[in-house]
Every structure is written in structure tokens, then in C-alpha cells.
């Protein structure tokens, strides 16, 4: 990952500039966010053993990073935090995944958003004899993105009740023009925090773009 710092007048960095390892996806976050260990966030999301074949293959196909504005940063803040959390990932799609990709698949790329996937998620939780972690889904907004050179995507904002708190998520997923990669940014914090700081999160999301490299 390449990260470049822009210095302010007092010599301190204002932003962390981020690109994925292939240099095709770009965004920036305020320097008040702490960057988390990539391996830790992926293991938290997948539950894979770091020495397993699944984890090895994922490292080849998936790039990710995360930033937490909490005074005590933690990968667990991805799903529930009073402070803002930013997760970004780029997936190289297999041939099978390319054939199955759709706007709904982009919506469900990290968390269950569409009715079909939410129903499946709840059914699996019931079969396992446990309460679902995510409850009380509320859709706030849903936009289809038509981007340069045939790239397309979605931006969805929604609420979930997690424990006793309502968490708001802003999810942007972009399929590149070749249908080869999906780039995702997920911004979240508790709903009270999100309403108060939505304009700041819009500015972060607006920097999330695909890059066109020479050659």
C-alpha cells in the first residue's frame, strides 16, 4: 500500500492518502484516524486460521485496510462503535464471481442489505440456534452509480441494531469497467454519531475513486 501525507501549515499531516497494492483504487482519510493491521481486520471478518489455505488464497485475491478514529482503535469497531470507522477493500474476482456479479451482489458485498440475503442470513442464524447479530434493518438511501469508462456501482446507507445500539453504515461498491475487480468502502458509527457527522463522511466517500494508470 502506498500512503502519502499532505502537510498543513504547522507541519502536521492533514490526511492519509491511500492506494491499494495494484494502485487502482484511491481515497483519503483525516490523519486523526489510526490505521489498523490488515491481517487482523481480515481474520476478524472471515474467521479463517491465518495459516490456512483459505487465508493464503484470500491474501492473493483481496487487499484491504481500515482506519479507526477511536482513542483505542480496534477491529471490532467495524461493526459497532461510537466513533467513525472506515474499511476499504479491493477484490480480484474469479471467473465464477464475474459471472454472478450484479448490483445486488455489490450491495451485499460486506453486510446483508438486500431482502433475499437478509432472509438467508436470518435463516442460517436460526438453524445454528443463535440470535442474529444484525437486527432491525432500515434502508436510508440507495443510489446506482454510473462512472467513467463503463465502471458502475452502488452507494447504500442503512441502519442495523447491534446489541443495544443502532449503527449506521455508508457502503460504496464499484465494479471496474472490465468486470475484474470490486472496490468497496464502508464507513460506520452509531446513528447519533453518523447524523452529526454525515457531511464529514460524505467528503471521505467522495474521495473514493478508481485510478487509471498509464499503459
Q: How large is the count of helical segments?
A: 6
Query: Strand percentage, roughly?
Result: 35-45%
Through-space gap between termini? 20 Å
Task: Name the assembly state.
Answer: single chain
Overall shape: globular
Helical residue percent? 25-40%
**How many strands?**
11
Radius of gyration: 17 Å
Spans of at least 5 consecutive residues with low confidence: 1-9
- How are the strands of the largest sheet arranged? 4-5-6-10-9-8-7
SSE ordering: EEEEHHEEHHHEEEEHE
Mean pLDDT: 89
| Main sheet properties | 7 strands, antiparallel
> Which structural class do you get from the secondary structure elements?
alpha+beta
Quick tags:
disordered N terminus; about 220 residues; 7-stranded antiparallel β-sheet; alpha+beta; globular
What's this model, at a glance?
The protein has 215 residues and is an alpha+beta fold. 27% of the residues lie in helices and 38% in strands. The chain has helices at 38-46, 53-61, 95-100, 103-107, 115-127, 191-206; strands at residues 2-7, 13-19, 25-30, 34-35, 62-68, 85-92, 135-146, 152-162, 165-175, 181-190, 209-210.
Amino acid at each position: 500500500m502506498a500512503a502519502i501525507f499532505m502537510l498543513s501549515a504547522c507541519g502536521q499531516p492533514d490526511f492519509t492518502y491511500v492506494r491499494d497494492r495494484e494502485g487502482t483504487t484511491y481515497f483519503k482519510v483525516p490523519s486523526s484516524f489510526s490505521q489498523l493491521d490488515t491481517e487482523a481486520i481480515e481474520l476478524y471478518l472471515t474467521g479463517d486460521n491465518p495459516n490456512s489455505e483459505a487465508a493464503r488464497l484470500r491474501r492473493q485475491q483481496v487487499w484491504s485496510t481500515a482506519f479507526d478514529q477511536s482513542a483505542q482503535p480496534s477491529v471490532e469497531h467495524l461493526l459497532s462503535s461510537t466513533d467513525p470507522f472506515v474499511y476499504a477493500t479491493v477484490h480480484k474476482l474469479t471467473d465464477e464471481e464475474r459471472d454472478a456479479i450484479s448490483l445486488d451482489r455489490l450491495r451485499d458485498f460486506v453486510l446483508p442489505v438486500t431482502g433475499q440475503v437478509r432472509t438467508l442470513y436470518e435463516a442460517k442464524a436460526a438453524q445454528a440456534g443463535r440470535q442474529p447479530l444484525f437486527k432491525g434493518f432500515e434502508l436510508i438511501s440507495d443510489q446506482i452509480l454510473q462512472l467513467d469508462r463503463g465502471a458502475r456501482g452502488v452507494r447504500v446507507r442503512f441502519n442495523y441494531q447491534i446489541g443495544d445500539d443502532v449503527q449506521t453504515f455508508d457502503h460504496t461498491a464499484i465494479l471496474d469497467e472490465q468486470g475484474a475487480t470490486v472496490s468497496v468502502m464502508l464507513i460506520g458509527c452509531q446513528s447519533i454519531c453518523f447524523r452529526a457527522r454525515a457531511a464529514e463522511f460524505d467528503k471521505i466517500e467522495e474521495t473514493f475513486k478508481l485510478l487509471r494508470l498509464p499503459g
